[in-house]
Write a structure and sequence with these properties.
Length: 220
């Protein structure tokens, strides 16, 4: 009986070690949905945030969702809980950063958190792949990540690309169209579910996420 217990204990130890090793080897992606008022929060959660999370998870990545406040984002139907506050994030723990659009308002939108800008600067400095659709492009601009780089943004008469808005944050940035634009470790998109619902321009969240996953795979 004692020998059996000993063998069981050894087997359990191997199982625990294997589980710990697997958990440690799982690459993590940091997702930071921008907080702020959005009339289409449910739409952005269901058609963008949850889509990106699902595709990343299917590709084998663990998605950690963080925000400044750490408080849930709640729509009428959908709710997003956060795993961490930005103050608790160590960017070295993540292989890449996803910045959902969230449809938080057309230019200039709500203020962008200095903590978020600081974290994006660190990610850029360390060469982390970053995915940013439409509204999140402003975050990259404020972090100085677009200087000398091509980026995507919606181009229409009511919401022209930032160079036409004379936004100083985009000084030195190069407008590259409204589709997917990849320049180095940064991939941007000028479309989102809100734009599809409002203007009928097809959302490309799945395409953006798959391109981001490909970038992440190259960094493994």
């Amino acid at each position: 009986m004692g020998r059996l217990s000993f063998l069981v204990a050894i087997l359990l130890s191997f199982v625990m070690i294997s589980a710990m090793a697997e958990a440690q080897s799982t690459s993590k992606v940091l997702m930071i949905p921008r907080e702020g008022k959005s009339a289409n929060l449910d739409l952005m959660l269901s058609k963008q945030v949850f889509v990106m999370i699902e595709l990343l998870q299917k590709a084998g990545f663990k998605v950690v969702v963080a925000s400044v406040s750490g408080q849930p984002l709640e729509g009428v139907v959908h709710k997003l809980n956060f795993d961490l506050k930005l103050s608790e994030v160590n960017i070295d723990d993540y292989v890449g950063v996803a910045l959902p659009c969230m449809a938080t308002g057309i230019f200039p939108g709500p203020p962008i958190s200095p903590a978020l800008v600081s974290l994006v600067k660190k990610a850029v400095a360390k060469g982390k792949p970053i995915a940013a659709p439409l509204g999140a492009v402003y975050i990259l601009a404020e972090a100085g990540a677009l200087k000398g780089k091509r980026y995507a943004f919606l181009d229409d008469a009511f919401n022209p690309p930032p160079p036409n808005q004379k936004d100083p944050r985009f000084e030195g940035a190069i407008y590259g169209g409204s589709g997917l634009v990849q320049d180095g470790n940064i991939i941007t998109s000028g479309r989102c579910p809100n734009i599809e619902a409002r203007m009928g321009i097809p959302d490309n969240t799945p395409e953006l996420t798959r391109a981001f996953i490909k970038m992440l795979g190259q960094k493994k």
